[in-house]
Amino acid sequence: MAEEKTLPLCPRCGAPYRSLECKVVNGKMYVYAYHGKVRRKPILCYLGPAGSYTHVEHIFALDLRNLSDVDLLAVAYNAASLYAARAHRLPAEEWGEAAERLRQLARDIEMLASDLA
Ligand SMILES: [Zn+2]
To answer: Residues 6 or more apart from 9 whose CB is under 8 A from it?
Structure first.
């Protein structure tokens, strides 16, 4: 979608994210990149403790230029999750094709894994 071209890129997985979310755990605040929801489950990437991430949102895109820091499998998983979430908004008769594309991707990934084993 055109909207996502302007979204900042997640320094953890490299995919565009919609917003930064903060969670408090044991009294400490942590920052996550929010990528959207799949079946009401939010897709979040842990970025780090709050403080180091305040007012540095504009730096994220620069950090990403160092692609060795990107978790490529997290990019692939998040992309597949968002694809599945979008497929749910299609007419039900188109779900089968979307499911088959996801299954084909899973088979292709399995072949990649076989080459390593
Ligand atoms: Zn991410």
So the answer is: 15, 16, 17, 60, 61, 64
Global pTM exceeds 0.90: no
Q: Hey, what are 104's tokens?
A: 């084909």
Q: What separation in Å is there between the alpha carbon of 60 and the centre of ligand 1?
A: 11
Sheet holding 28-38, edge to edge: 19-25, 28-38, 41-49
**Residue 56 burial class via C-beta count within 10 angstroms: exposed 0-12, middle 13-18, buried 19 and up:** middle
pLDDT tens digits, 41-95: 889 988 877 765 544 444 444 444 445 566 778 778 878 888 888 888 889 899 9
Q: How far is the CA of 23 from the centre of ligand 1 (A)?
A: 16
CA–centroid distance, residue 106 to ligand 1 (Å) = 20
List 37's β-bridge partners, or say none: 42
49: which DSSP letter? E
First and final C-alpha spacing in the chain: 37
